Amino acid sequence: MKLPPVCWVWALVWALPGAAEGLLPRHGLRKVWREPQGEVVWAPGSGGVTRVPAPEVVALRRRGGAALGALPTSVLASPAVPWVLGCVLSGVAGTPIVVRATKSWYREIRKPWFTPPDWVFAPVWTVLYAMMGFSAHLVAASRGMSSLPVLAFLAHLALNLSWAPVFFGLQRLRPAAFLNIGLLSTLFGVMALFFPVNRLAAALLVPYAAWLLFATVLNFEIARLNPERGRKRVALVIGGGDGGGSGVVTRDDGTTTMDDGNGRFDCGDGRG
């Protein structure tokens, strides 16, 4: 039985924070960054950051109270929901374009043997968008919404959301493939910015990077197998002295039609 997308969304919103909590130590303090006069750490129940003098942090570490990668339970509660929902719903916004394409031209084009079934993409992208949102939440909770890592993530997300309209909407297969290259490049940059802030946040983007790499290979292969798809409409008319003329029209699907003034002749895909 296939679950509707909303079921995936709500399951991830409530399950992901709890699952992440199980991966973290339970001592309740996490070093965020070091300052000359001390260190900034998470304090249980504070809902934010608390400045703790360096000697006290050292004492906490001796008691096993602070280690890189730990977060208090309070951070894993409600603040994550807007990030997770925001990323998932942003991805869902392009669904109408994808659905129309998969029911029309995308069903008819040539695809490589390793193309997954259409039903795989919805749950996979739902999970990945949720993990992206939770990853961004961890970094935003540490550094703030206006920090460079968060702004870089939001710019990457906007680039990600532009892929579906280019590939499925405009049917521009090769430009979409090169857009994927840009996505991979910016994603590695985001991961590099996330890692010093929160290693878990960077790790949560690894499955997305792997899937994006696979999607890039798939996109390039589909573009190779369908070179005629996405050609611009071109019209060439050779006029005669009496106002008549013959014309050649190349349609978006790559087929060519010739008109000698008396009738039309379909010339196939125009590749000779």
Number of DSSP-assigned strands: 7
How large, in whole angstroms, is the Cα Rg?
Answer: 26 Å
Main beta sheet:
4 strands, antiparallel
The separation of the N and C termini measures 47 Å
Order of helices and strands: HEEEHHHHHHHHHHEEEE
Structure report:
With 272 residues, this protein is of the alpha+beta class. The chain is 55% helix and 12% strand. It has eleven helices and seven strands. The protein has helices at residues 5-23, 54-62, 80-92, 95-102, 105-108, 118-143, 148-161, 163-169, 173-197, 199-203, 206-225; strands at residues 31-35, 38-42, 49-52, 234-239, 245-250, 256-259, 264-266. The strands form two sheets. The protein has a four-stranded antiparallel beta sheet with strand order 4-5-6-7, with no helix packed on it. It has a three-stranded antiparallel beta sheet with strand order 1-2-3. A hairpin with a 6-residue loop joins strand 2 and strand 3 (49-52). Helix 1 packs antiparallel against helix 3, helix 1 packs across helix 6 and helix 8 packs antiparallel against helix 9 (173-197).
Précis, in short:
This protein has helices at 5-23, 54-62, 80-92, 95-102, 105-108, 118-143, 148-161, 163-169, 173-197, 199-203, 206-225; strands at residues 31-35, 38-42, 49-52, 234-239, 245-250, 256-259, 264-266. With 272 residues, the chain is of the alpha+beta class.
Features:
12% strand; 7 strands; 4-stranded antiparallel beta sheet; alpha+beta; 3-stranded antiparallel beta sheet; disordered N terminus; single chain; 272 residues
